Amino acid sequence: MRRFASPLVQCCRAVVRTWSRNDEGGVAIIFALSITLLFGVVGSAVDMGRWVTARSETRNAMDGALLAAGRALQMPEKTEADALATAQTYYEQNKSKVMSSGKVGFQIVDNGTAIKATSSVVVATPFLAVLGIPELPVDGSAKAVLQVGGNVGTHIEVSMMLDVTGSMQGDKLADMKVAAKDLIDIVVWDDQSQYSSRVALAPFSRHVNVGRDQFKAITGNNSGGKNKPQACVEERKTGDRYTDTAPDKKNYFENGPIGDDCEPTSPIVPLTKDRSLLKSAIDAFKAAGGTAGHLGTQWAWYLISPRWTSIWPAASAPRPYGEITQKGPRGNPLLQKIAVLMTDGEYNTWHSGDSSTAQARALCDNMKAEGIKVYAIGFQIGAGGEAETTLKGCATAADYYYNARDGASLREAFRDIALRITTLRLAE
Predict the structure, then answer these.
(1) Cα–Cα distance, 241 to 233 (Å, whole number)
(2) CA 233, CA 246: separation in Å to the nearest integer?
(3) What 3-state class would DSSP assign to 366?
(4) Using CA of residue 299, residue 300, residue 303, residue 304, what is the dihedral sign?
(5) Residue 166 and residue 243: Cα distance in Å, rounded?
(6) Residue 9 and residue 13: Cα distance in Å, rounded?
(7) If you placed Cys at 324, which of 63, 269, 354, 371 could pair as Cys (CB 3.0 to 4.6 Å)?
């Protein structure tokens, strides 16, 4: 059967026959050089095309692996090791099919707030190898940053009720300080020009220390002298002990000890974006006194309540509740108000009214009714006891409660809360 060559092949044959009949040797040399050049150009294009494909597929696989790992890191039951394993598995399943060697490595960076991928992949280049280029690198790096919700149009306000009672002395207090500062580092971001992320502190023991600046507005009492920065308060004796109604002459708070007898010695810190201020305040915590958990719960609420705007400095004024139900530019809530309640034992101290436990439970119910998300952390408390029952009842949902067994798990709990209120983004 007769075979027919393609037009391109016939053309090439004709060119070869014409050049081969030419008696001038120079034509043959030019032809040979032209063929070599043509082969090099076509071959290089093939190699470059494979390299472009490998680079694109590798970067896509890296980005997907980073996002998968970041999501794993935000899950309560997952560890950093689990996240890294997730990244590696995802990459191996989706990496480029173009012939290559080398690998992509993953690591947790930036104090646990980002996952980085680094490529050492190379693509073999059989055509360019003739020119001394046997392979091309698909190097580079990518990062999945666990950025706070403000980067997608969300304001964040977090208040932390922190137990500084006598039972927290020693390693427990030190562990709590590290864990709380971890949350601050993750939640408070640098650029606050469009959306704010702020944290407030409510340390408590047998009282809450409101400091001298707001003492008169809260109690109606200006006693104690300007040189005594400690000013403790008790609960209100009216029905507003269960609400976030701002104080006035009808429902002032009862003042407790003023000066050296005030426990805790550390005052509350209204909402602020100043990480250094927040961490310095935490470093100054000292443990002493009983466990008036309902007072800590109250002040964790008041610090993010818009009804207290007139009490706090302008820069610390909480945003309106209505923004919780409004949507940001990507469909997420415009505002998140979050209370983190941390204690190491049963609420055993109160000054009037129902028990501390009963008051705390009522406060939590009313706080959640306003749209505030409540996370609760028990630190080395007994399973099934009154303390755990109270904290579980305060938490917004079952997975909003943590029982930290030791310092490492306490730090993990605070960090997990911080990551759960963040969102992922890819960064170079």
Answers:
(1) 12
(2) 15
(3) helix
(4) negative
(5) 28
(6) 6
(7) 371
User: What whole-number percentage of the chain has pLDDT above 70?
Assistant: 83
Indicate the pTM of the whole model.
0.73
Report the distance separating Cα 108 and Cα 39, nearest Å: 46
Question: Residue 340 in contact with residue 375, Cβ under 8 Å?
Answer: yes
Q: How far is the CA of 389 from the CAs of 202, 236, 381, in angstroms?
A: 22, 25, 11
Comparing C-alpha atoms, which of 67, 134, 66, 70 is closest to residue 100? 134
| Model pLDDT for residues 103-159, shown as the tens digit of each residue | 888 888 877 778 888 888 888 887 777 777 888 888 777 777 766 555 557 899 999
CATH 3.40.50.410 domain extents, the chain: 153-423
Give the CATH H-level superfamily of domain 153-423: von Willebrand factor, type A domain (3.40.50.410)
Distance CA(266)–CA(176), nearest Å, equals 15
Kindly tell me the burial class for residue 132, based on how many C-beta atoms sit within 10 Å of its own C-beta (0-12, 13-18, 19 or more). exposed
3-state secondary structure of 333: strand
Among 52-56, 72-76, 193-197, 297-301, where is mean pLDDT lowest? 72-76
Query: Which tokens is 242 given?
Result: 């269960």
Considering only residues 155 and 53, tell me which one the structure prediction assigns the higher pLDDT.
155
On the 0-12 / 13-18 / 19+ scale of CB atoms within 10 A, 336 is buried
Whose tokens are 């191996």? That residue is: 92
> Alpha-carbon distance 178 to 183, whole Å?
9
Contact 303, 365 (CB under 8 A): no
